[in-house]
Amino acid sequence: MTDSLQYVQNARVPIPCTREVEYHRPLSAEDLKTMPCKSHHFVTQGVLKKELSPLLVNDMSEQLIRLDITAPEAAYDTLTGLLTLKVSSGWEEQSLDNGDTLFRVHCENAGLIQDVEQAVQAMVPEAECVRDNVVVQDWLTAWKEFFTPVECGTRFVVLPPWLVDKTDLGSRKAIVIEPKSAFGTGHHATTALCLGVLSDLLDEGRIGQGMRFLDLGTGSGVLGIGLVLSGLAGEGWDIDPIAIDNALENRDINKIAEKDFAIGTGSIDAVAGRDFDVVVANILARPLMEMARDIVTVKAAGGVLVLSGLLTIQTDSVAAAYQACGLGEPERVVGGEWSALVWK
Ligand SMILES: C[S@@+](CC[C@H](N)C(=O)[O-])C[C@H]1O[C@@H](n2cnc3c(N)ncnc32)[C@H](O)[C@@H]1O
Question: Ligand 1 pocket: which residues have CB below 6 Å?
Answer without folding.
Answer: 21, 23, 182-184, 190-191, 194, 216-219, 222-223, 237-240, 243, 267, 282-283, 287, 309
